[in-house]
Design a protein that fits this description.
With 173 residues, this protein is an alpha+beta fold. It has 2 domains: 128 residues, Ribosomal protein L10, N-terminal RNA-binding domain (Alpha-Beta Plaits, 2-Layer Sandwich), CATH 3.30.70.1730; 42 residues. 54% of the residues lie in helices and 16% in strands. It is built from 6 helices and 5 strands. It has a 5-stranded antiparallel beta sheet with strand order 2-3-1-4-5. Strand 4 and strand 5 form a beta hairpin. The longest helix has 40 residues. The protein is elongated. It starts with a helix and ends with a helix.
Length: 173
């Protein structure tokens, strides 16, 4: 790669990183071509972009972005690195975990999810259990609706009892 090609690649990678709210760094070394193609296929089906990157170029791209601090991820940039760009925070973790049922790789090196940084393969279970924005919004709406439904049903139930008592008292008089 020439110096100009490297500079262009770093700029493109920096643009991708700055636009991405979610990306994972994984070690996909020692996977066969067939296995890596299966992983790429699963990623593509889940709307995740998977690409192999050179650590030094990724490091330079992360350093060139203003306003975001990726310094914690610098420590994991050794050996072969693949980067997974996604829209949903827990989807790459689910794919990695599911894929590791048949293989011991890919290993999670680190993840960046909406300004939070996760380091190491030990974080995989925590990342799988993260909820997407849509799931969280659904839970919040459900929690907000629940008390209102309880109040309305209590008022309807108590209102019926009061009306029944008043009607009985009226008939007695």
């Amino acid at each position: 790669m020439t110096k100009e090609q490297k500079a262009k690649y770093i700029d493109e990678l920096a643009a991708e990183l700055s636009q991405a709210g979610v990306f994972y760094l994984a070690d996909t070394s020692e996977l066969t071509v067939e296995t890596i193609n299966q992983l790429r296929r699963r990623c593509f089906q889940s709307n995740i972009r998977l690409k192999v990157v050179k650590n030094t170029l990724l490091q330079k791209a992360m350093e060139s972005i203003d306003g975001k601090d990726y310094s914690e991820l610098s420590g994991v940039l050794s050996g072969p690195t693949s980067i997974m760009f996604a829209e949903v925070g827990n989807l790459p973790a689910r794919i990695i975990k599911d894929f590791r049922k048949k293989s011991d790789k890919p290993l999670l090196k680190g993840a960046f999810i909406d300004e939070a940084i996760f380091i190491g393969d030990s974080q995989l279970d925590a990342l799988v259990s993260l909820k997407s924005k849509e799931e969280l919004l659904g839970e919040i709406v459900g929690l907000l609706q629940s008390p209102a439904k309880n109040v309305i049903s209590a008022l309807k139930g108590q209102g019926g009892k009061i009306a029944g008592i008043l009607k009985t008292l009226e008939e007695r008089a």
